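Sample intake sheet
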Amino acid sequence: MVRVLAALEDAGAWLSTAVLAGLMLLICVDVLLRYAFNSPLSWGVEISEISLLWITMLGSAYVLREGGHIRVDLLFNMISPAATRRCAMFSCVVCAMACAVLTVFGSEAVVTSILRGSFRPTQLEIPIWAIIIVIPVGAALLTLRFVRLFFEYRSGSRRIEDESMA
């Protein structure tokens, strides 16, 4: 199960990276067309907005696994390692519950969008479900990662002090 989760997180990170690279290329082409030929891509901003959601949701579980999320460690510097561990475990429980709620409600939104045939009334007319399906997928990965992180903190195999302070 741990290897499957890691493989899914890695896949999400690679896909997130590919979307980011595509977004950078899109923006460069759009800027070139706008200023050199006065003819921007009419759908460029729409794809950029969607890409930002996909990049965030696909890459966040991987970033959490690698200890790359931003955290304020002022409190952790003032309390004992045991208290730090308890705080980290509590944080994992709260975050896992929040992500689980996001997974459930995101899934409901996707199903509702499919049943209603909802789409964005823009030039591309992308179905809403195709845009937001990444929310329950990414939130589910984050839920599983927070659960795994909880057990890593509990067993002592991972410590806050050992994580990168980038």
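Comment: Helices lie at 2-37, 44-65, 74-78, 81-116, 128-132, 134-155. The chain has one domain: 2-162.
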